[in-house]
Amino acid sequence: MTDSPTPLTGTDAPNPLRDPRDRRLPLIAGPSSMVMFGVTGDLARKKLLTAIYDLTHRGLLPPSFGLVGFGR
Hints:
By secondary structure, the chain is an alpha+beta fold. It has a two-stranded antiparallel sheet. It has a two-stranded parallel ribbon with strand order 3-4. The chain has a domain at 34-72. It has one helix at 42-57, and strands at residues 6-7, 27-28, 33-37, 66-70. The chain is built from 1 helix and 4 strands, in the order βββαβ. Helix content is 22%, strand content 19%.
């Protein structure tokens, strides 16, 4: 089951309350989570977690994004 983003309703006028540094698309994304298996490994630590951190820092992930990691 996948939920597609729902377009915002109303006019196409820019939102004056939206932060101009916010680069997310003007769509409302549903809650999402990512499950990572082997999160204690080298690949996760050096590549995957840093990429997810970067996306979060730049504001490109939805606010309700969740990350679950499993490791040995």
